[in-house]
Amino acid sequence: MDLDNLTNAAFWADYHDLDGTALYFLPHLRAMPDRIGAALQAVADAPPGAVLFHCMGGRDRTGLLAMVLLAAAAVEPADIVDDYLETVRVRNAQAAAEHSHSAEPMLDRLCRAHRHSTESAFRAALDGLDVDEVLRRAGLDDATITAVRTWRGRLPG
Prior knowledge:
The longest helix has 21 residues, at 77-97. 61% of the residues lie in helices and 0% in strands. The protein has one domain (13-149). The chain has 157 residues and is mainly alpha-helical.
């Protein structure tokens, strides 16, 4: 599923510079609820077994979808934040091990230019997330919402 919808020029004109950060998560969910809906539907409809979702960096589109999935399953906010920050930690460690450049310092500077850190930008997105509204606006039916909220029947409903 393509969460970005780069053809939505009106949205990306305002948020392209924030790509790679959680600063665009809530505006994205409001502007393109069909995109998160399609991704959630794909997770709910996947065959039995593990479900893999990813993006290039593992913290942008992956972070957005993981945030919604974890919040829908009523995971504690501190654990959702830690899950997101683990990706940042892993990316920094991977870059160091490979003697390559990590984008994390640049992304944190971008967040700081907007009066946030990487962590506080994500916390703000999570704090502002209304899961019920996201699921409703995504156009998901009751069975799909139940599948999302219960991790496809693995959690109590």
